[in-house]
Every structure is written in C-alpha cells, then in structure tokens.
Amino acid sequence: MTCARAHIFLPDLYLANLISLACALSIYLIAELLLKHGARGDDGMVNGDGDSALTVASTFGAGTCAAIVLATLPTTASSASNLPPRGTHRNSAGKGAVYLAATHNHLKTLNVLLSCGLSPDLPHATNGDTPIMACARSGSSHLACAQRLLEAGCNLELVDAASGDDVLCAAARVGNEGLVELLIEGHAPPPCRCLPGHRNLHSGDTARMLAVAKGSLACVTKLVHMPGAPLAAQNATGDSALTWAVWYGHEQIVRELLRAGAPPNLPTAKGETALMFAAYRNQPKVCSLLLEAGADLHARNANGDGPLALAAGCGNSPDCCRLLLGTTASADESDGAAGGGARGQKSGRANMIDANVRDGQGHTPLMLAVGQGNMACAEVLLATGQVLLGHHIRICDTHTRVAFRKFALDSAGFVWGSVFFYNSAVARLD
Question: Among 52-61, 106-115, 224-233, 382-391, where is mean pLDDT lowest?
Fold first, then answer.
C-alpha cells in the first residue's frame, strides 16, 4: 500500500533514487517491488548522476538486481514508449552497464549482462573506449572479465579515439601479459592477428613498441614473433622496437629483439640508429650487443654525428668510446659477462673507426669531449695514439679552444706541449 501511494505521489527522481539505492545495496526484493509499483530501470528514470537502476547495479556488482531490471526493459527500441533498447543507456560520465561492470571487475554481473544479450562493445560516450579496452588497461586483475568479453565476441578492431589504441596496444602499453597472450594465441581473429603490429592510430607505435616502453620483457617475448608484424616496423618518427629498447635502457629486451632478428641499423627519421642511442645514453653493454649483431660504426644522423662523437660528447661514456674504438670490451669487464670479447684483450674491432672523424660541423670526438668537459673520454681518445692535436686545435671554434686549453693545463698527463699547441700551433695553423 505504501509503495502504491509512493508511485502515485512521489516524483520520478525520488523513485529513481530509491531503486538506485536498492540496487547499490543489492536488495533485490525491494528493487523488484519498486519496479512493480512504477519505478523503471531504463534511461526514462535516472538519479541525480544520470545513472539508471541498471548502471547502478552494474557499478556495485548487484547481478541479481541487474537481471530483475533487465527483465522489465524492452529488448528492442520501441516507438510507442520512446525508449532505446535495454542496456544502451549511459550515465552522465558516458559509461554503460557493461562498461561499468567490466571496469569494476564484477565478473558475475558482467556475465548476467552478456547472457541477457547486452552488447560487449558499447563504448564510452566520450572517447570510444570499449569495455575490453578498459579491462586491458586495468592489468591482470581484470583478465577474467576480459576473457568473458572475448567469449561474447567483442570487436577487437575498434579503436579508442582519445588514445588511438586498439585492445592489443592498450594491453601492451601497461604490460598486461595475460591479455596479450589471449589476444595473440586465443581469441584474436586472423584479420587482427595479421595486421602489422596493431599500430596506434595517432603515432603509429606498434603493440611491440608499447610493450618495450613499458619494459615488459614477457609481453615483448610474446609479441616478437607475432604473424604479420615485422621487427622492422617503425612509427611516425621512424623509431622501431629496438631503438626504443635501447633508449629506455632495457638490455634484456634488446637481447630478445636481436635474437629474434631485429635489424640493428634501421635509422629513425633523423638518421639515428640503435648504436647511436646506446652511445648517447652511456650503455656500454648494449653497445657491445649491437656491435656483435653487426651495427654500423660509420652511420651518421641528420646532424652528421656518428656513434663515437655521441659517446665522447653528450654521452660522456669512456666505456662506449673504448668499445667503438675497439680497444677493450669494458662492458664485459664490468660484470664478467661473456660475449663481447675476452677480458683485457683487444676486441678485434681496433682501427675500425677513425678517432678523428668529424661531424657535420667539423668537430672531432676529442673536440666534443673537451667541449663537454669529459676528461675520461678525452683520455681514451688520446690513448689510441691516433688523435692529431694540432688538427683539432685548428678547426676548433673559440669556445672549444678555451676549453681545450683549460683541459690541457689542468690534466697532468697532457701538460706537455699545451702552451705550444694553444699559443704557437693555433697562430701557425689558422
């Protein structure tokens, strides 16, 4: 009797709030009673947050309430009631029932919704994010919900308009190893599995590259042999999975990519190679791996810089300088690892690169090392016996000349001839 009077006198907002509260608390008997006396579970009756009884039940994991509400909703659009098909309502945040159940990891409620015929693909109203993409970004904790959505036949070719990711890219971006494995080996249909790496819509980053950026060796290992995804795939800036692995310092991933056959000399749009990145980022172990894989010592980027110039200048890496000059395998000496040459022995790369090679502005590695104040790199270069000091002084700019003079005067090993080189040689050679 009370409920009947409430149906007559209470506005829809109050009824909506009552049934939402019943669904939030999983009190399905009260929800059922309210539905019998005027409350509705569709978008014709919403609470202050724009939630219908169904979206509230999905948010709080009230599967029984969700089933009761769904039983009262039309299965198709009705011109008479002017209501959309059931399960298509989104709240004020743009989220539908399936999306909410998946993001809140309510597997039983999700199963109820999908079993009642709700679409597994109703996206977020704002960015196009689908339920399985939301599960992908939530990590391994939502793997069961993601698997249920896959079983329901969700569309794997949809793309999140905001991030540009499809579901595989979304999973790789967060290192969701379990879902990556499901998508590659279990549920991804052949058209999806043969796309070139599942690229991001905006940047062209492949799923493999996103897994590299995350540092997920497990995901990279699963993606490395993905059909139709060449290891030479590059994004909009010309980066590849290998150049990203080197840039982010993921040595084990570099090993895995090289073992799988990733080309070591693939340049970016600016002409940068993986070896240049390793030299610039002071990664002697990675340098050694790349050299063993056949990395080009003589490659130049758009500025005319080669690996040695980058190692001696901005990289400030004497160990990389030694490796590139072929004087020692210091990366192996540092941890006793095998594979880069015998400890304390010549690596076999001696004289493979000119210690006086100049960049696009005419600077040599020694000039760059001195200009940056990298005394250790300068000592490595001078120790080769190949460096022509007078030649370096002649082509230095004024700033580097001053830096070189200070270096020569301050370094006990190079006091000899420093005044001559700066005062006499400069005047004579310029």
Answer: 382-391
Give the CA angle between residues 84, 89, 91 to the nearest 5°: 150
**Fold: same for 1-74+88-118 and 273-387:** yes
The model carries a pTM of 0.77
Amino acid identity, residue 138?
S
Most confident of 226-235, 271-280, 329-338, 400-409: 271-280
Residue 96 pairs in a beta bridge with 90
- Answer left, alpha or beta for residue 204, where phi above 0 means left and psi between -120 and 50 means alpha: left
Q: What is the mean pLDDT of the chain?
A: 77
Residue of 296, 297, 313, 314 whose CA lies nearest to 369: 313
Contacts of 360 (CB under 8 A, 6+ apart): 300, 303, 304, 305
Domain boundaries, given as residue ranges, for the chain: 1-74+88-118, 124-228, 273-387, 388-430
CA angle (384, 389, 392) in 5-degree steps: 110
83 backbone dihedrals φ, ψ, rounded to 5°: -115, 145
Under DSSP, is residue 83 helix (H, G, I), strand (E, B) or coil? strand
Q: Does domain 1-74+88-118 have CATH number 1.25.40.10?
A: no
Output the six-digit token pair for 394. Answer: 């002649």
Residue 302 has a pLDDT of: 94
Superfamily name with CATH number, domain 273-387: Ankyrin repeat-containing domain (1.25.40.20)
CA neighbor of 374 nearest in space, from 417, 344, 334, 411: 411
Q: How far, in Å, CA of 53 to CA of 43, rounded?
A: 9
Q: In whole angstroms, what is the distance from residue 167 CA to residue 184 CA?
A: 11
- Which one-letter DSSP state was computed for residue 183? I
Question: What topology does CATH give the domain 124-228?
Answer: 1.25.40
Token look-up 């959309």 returns 84
Q: Which residues of 210-220 are buried (b: 16+ CB within 10 A; e: fewer)?
A: bbbbbebbebb
User: Which phi and psi (to 5°) does residue 96 adopt?
Assistant: -90, 180
Mean pLDDT is highest, among 2-16, 18-32, 140-154, for 140-154
Q: Which SS3 state, helix, strand or coil, does residue 253 take?
A: helix
d(CA 378, CA 364): 11
Q: Which of 49-63, 97-111, 275-289, 342-356 has the lowest mean pLDDT?
A: 342-356
Give the residue among 243, 316, 231 at the shortest CA–CA distance from 275.
Answer: 243
Sign of CA dihedral 290, 295, 300, 301: negative
